[in-house]
Amino acid sequence: MKPRVQLKLTAIAAAIAALSTGAIAQTMGPGGESPTLASEVTLTDAEVQQIKGMDATAALLWHTSSDFVNAVTAGAEDEFKRLGIEVVATTDAGFDSAKQMSDIETVMAKSPSIILALPLDPTTSAQAFKSAVDAGVKIVLLSNVPSGYVQGNDYVGIVTDDLFQMGKQAADALAESIGGKGKVAWIFHDAQYYVTNQRDNAFKQTIENDYPDIEIVAEAGIADPARAEEIANALITKNPDLDGIYVTWAEPAEGVLAALRAAGNTTTRIVALDLSEPLALDMVNDGNVVALTADKAYELGRTMATVGAYGLIDKPAPAFSVAPAITVTKENVADGWKQSLNREPPQSVIDAMK
User: Fold this and answer.
1) Geometric angle at alpha carbon 350, from 345 and 354, rounded to 5°
2) Burial of 56 (0-12, 13-18, 19+ CB in 10 A)
3) Which of 53, 86, 171, 192 could be 206's S-S partner, Cβ–Cβ 3.0 to 4.6 Å?
């Protein structure tokens, strides 16, 4: 999951601090909630029949458009279809809070029973979604929470990635690729952001706790992905013997890969979070990239729809549900792409695999 919006909540900062000190070994919600696995979010046959008889409708209010959003949408639509719930609107705010507010006003004219959404900004979205809350719409949130909203009153539940597992799996994959020993660099997201901070710190915690023969010899924070190659150049110059590099997400990892190529370095291994065509191409061609860890976006959508259905029948919903992570390597790239994004890999990757 790429960084989507900035969250500034005291509880989030506390969760991040706990993770960075090794105090937890699981994903925590934005308010410190313990996770419920997506696989545990289910409905009985009797509940499905009850929901089918309600003539319920749903609206999907997304923050942007992307392969990730398309996969979340597919998972939600398939589950809603199974439950007899009609999707009456799907919107794209284009990362514009004002547009998202307008989208909500437009959608509310259709009187949906359920809204699935990723609020763009905690403060403005608190006002933007107020009309839906007041109308009793069952709101399910992807990752972010409007300021002051209370689970069970203002929204049914939050669904996001298993952030800790994404970071942990990246650490395990990098460790395996370098034989469990060596020197690595940690390039993290230099901003207070709930999603990336948990993932990044899970990588670091796993290396420090589980791999005593691997040393993190260099750390670099990155706020602007456009500066990734520049930051990587400096890091590689100072540490030419790195065995591996962790990069916080795919876009800056492409810059790190460019820096290694420019330096003629074919031995330093890269792991990154989220899927990317350039990184996957390098991986299947036995380049520097050895693994990409990703969320199961389709399962995120399926879980969000099910949580919304919980709200319809007043079934107590988990406050915070997490969809599983997957490690994508050269060996499973086609299946991994399908599991994560519910689509085949880009044609260039398919061709390179032949």
Assistant:
1) 155
2) buried
3) 171
* HSE toward the beta carbon, residue 150, CA cutoff 13 A: 2
Can you tell me the distance from the alpha carbon of 173 to that of 184, in angstroms, rounded to the nearest whole number? 13
pTM of the entire predicted model: 0.83
Contact 5, 63 (CB under 8 A): yes
> Tokens 């260039």 belong to which residue?
348
Using alpha carbons, select from 54, 62, 33 the residue that is nearest to residue 141: 62
Q: What is the pLDDT along the chain (354 residues), one digit of tens a residue?
A: 445 444 434 344 444 444 444 445 789 888 888 999 999 999 999 999 999 999 999 999 999 887 889 999 999 999 999 999 999 999 999 989 999 999 999 999 999 999 999 998 888 999 999 999 999 999 999 988 999 999 999 999 999 999 999 999 999 999 999 999 999 999 999 987 778 899 999 999 999 999 999 999 999 999 988 999 999 999 999 999 999 999 999 999 999 999 999 999 999 999 999 999 999 999 999 999 999 999 999 999 999 999 999 999 999 999 999 999 999 999 999 999 999 998 899 999 999 998
DSSP-assigned letter for residue 273 = E
237 class by beta-carbon count within 10 Å (0-12 exposed, 13-18 middle, 19+ buried) = exposed
Lookup: tokens for 271? 């792991």
Residue type, 138: K
- Summarize the chain as % helix, strand, coil (round to 5): 45, 20, 35
Strand order through the sheet with 86-92: 36-37, 320-323, 157-161, 138-142, 114-117, 57-62, 86-92
Angle at 23 between CA 167 and CA 3, to 5 degrees: 35
* 98 contact partners, CB below 8 Å, separation of at least 6: none
